[in-house]
């Protein structure tokens, strides 16, 4: 499955399932996380970047990785949990796409790691 199809699925799930169907008490927090994931994924897929170093804090790889390190459990279980959402794109390829960035930049500026 290509990256643009995955991005399409992320946007469809955000619009159809999350915004119109999720009513948990953490919706505002998760909405920001979801939108940041979409922005960073769009940058990555379209190669919109300020520099070519994927470990730089301004890179989309770093941005997705930081979100996955900080909020991976919620992203994998709440935002993209299960097998299918309200999209033609299955959840598993979306999770696989996002999880590939989990270690990007973990030894960078703030010194935090995923250990």
Short summary of the structure?
This protein is mostly helical.
Keywords, separated by commas or semicolons:
115 residues; 59% helix; globular; disordered C terminus; Phage protein
Low-confidence stretches: 105-115
Number of strands: 0
Number of DSSP helical runs = 4
Radius of gyration, CA atoms, in whole angstroms: 14 Å
Shape verdict = globular
Overall mean pLDDT score?
A: 88
Which secondary-structure class do the elements indicate? mainly alpha
- The domain tally reads 1
Strand residues, percent: under 5%
Determine the N-to-C terminus distance. Answer: 30 Å
Which bin fits the share of residues in helices?
Answer: 55-70%
Following the backbone from N to C, one meets helices and strands in this order, namely HHHH
Organism: Bacillus sonorensis
Protein name: Phage protein
Structure notes:
This protein is mostly helical and 115 residues long. It has one domain. Helix content is 59%, strand content 0%. The longest helix has 20 residues, at 27-46. The radius of gyration is 14 Å and the shape is globular.
SSE diagram, text form:
Layout: H1 3-21, H2 27-46, H3 60-79, H4 91-99
Protein name: Phage protein
Organism: Bacillus sonorensis
